[in-house]
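Lab notebook, bench 4. We co-purified these components, and the gel suggests they stay together. Before we commit to crystallization screens, I want a quick structural picture of the whole thing.
Request: model the full complex, all chains together.
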Amino acid sequence: MATCGWARAVRGLLLDVSGVLYDSGADGGVPIAGSAEAVRRIKASGLKLQLCTNETQATRENFVRKLRALGFDISVAEVTAPAPAACRLLKERGLRPHLLVHDDLVPEFAEVDKTNPNCVVLGDAAENFTYANLNEAFRLLIGMEKPVLISLGKGRYYKETDGLKLDVGAYMKALEYACDVQAEVVGKPAKKFLESALAELGVPAEQAIMIGDDIVSDVGGAQQCGMRALQVRTGKYRPSDENHPEVKPDAYVNNLAEAVDIILQHL
Amino acid sequence: MATCGWARAVRGLLLDVSGVLYDSGADGGVPIAGSAEAVRRIKASGLKLQLCTNETQATRENFVRKLRALGFDISVAEVTAPAPAACRLLKERGLRPHLLVHDDLVPEFAEVDKTNPNCVVLGDAAENFTYANLNEAFRLLIGMEKPVLISLGKGRYYKETDGLKLDVGAYMKALEYACDVQAEVVGKPAKKFLESALAELGVPAEQAIMIGDDIVSDVGGAQQCGMRALQVRTGKYRPSDENHPEVKPDAYVNNLAEAVDIILQHL
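Here is the predicted assembly.
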């Protein structure tokens, strides 16, 4: 058995979802081979497990329903996602959002006052990223004395079954530039968000490993919180990630199943 | 008569167009009061005149037709615009563009080989800034060994008769971020572009004044080329421009007519 120093003294795993458990797509997506079995093995081993996603195209309830249909044994409480975290932030600060998000995410904000908006919340709006909707969000921001832009993640792009798509981060940059503001990111790699996922996982950072396909959001974000982090060679992984100028994972693994094999061997 | 040091020893004027001559809009736009008369007075005075625009929603021919319909005595040779400059650059470097531009600009690229694209040219595509079109441009770029993104200007936003609109610069930032590249800007405030406008004006930088409504693209760009530059309080001008951290115009004027009054008094 290979000796993998990074795999020692682990009590909990934070898993990214899209690109690790499944490849998303308009058709509902397809599971990545071995991932459903890997989730079952994690649970059977007694390791703690929490999914930490930047997914903002569905409520957590619908997201979990989709994962279960794909064969993943996951409950809503096992998912940390940006929208509920954003709702807490909005309430704490008395902010009333204009939403530029996916239609299916809107119910997450049902309890939030959206009259007379004093901030813009940007998610992965997909088909709602229209010229008209972007101009509307821009005009609201530029009309505020101090524009407040809250972005649910800052990913560059992601992979769907029919190809790569621009992610919310690209649109965030467009609005940041137009309004000369800096967005507040709720989602990976924001430290506060990853710390809330870690709190829900219930183990200290030094006993947790993050496993993700995004070198910056998953790996870089987790390492900044003191966790170890693996990059899988599935999802949006590209060979050029292995030369990233700033972020170096604790290890590369071919996929989640391989990571789980190694971790379980070291328990 | 007020003594205005900035108005001395002038032999030529570079004028921005939208927000200085007229306010643009889907309805064709409306002239700014006094501007058509001001253009006539410049020409009658013997001062040289060149329009320098980042307009990329029409060919120069159609753009000039629109200006003439609004009462401006302007010919095609008096307009410096990004698309013809971009065509020269594409030919020089053997680049074959994928175009994400306004439908009405496409004829400017009629002579350019667009098969098997090895770069993306981005203009103010307006309604063509769809989710699908942005994803298509992104996928082409991210698939190139060394992505080349050419942006026709980098304005943040502009004013139309029905409100502010995101300009090409915002979409440029989105693609720059997603692909981790830096766009090459053809248009104001790029020095090379302003120098080509100055060459077409036919006077040295120190004898030319730029008049524009954009503190960065017009004023900052012209000053970097050694020209004097005025900001008009029309078009997209906002009072906060007067506190810009980096750019300070040689003077503010209420509108083009006032600028021309003062300049002609100093001839």
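The CA atoms of residues 29 and 134 of chain B lie 27 Å apart. Worth comparing against the SEC data before the next meeting. The mean pLDDT of chain B is 95.
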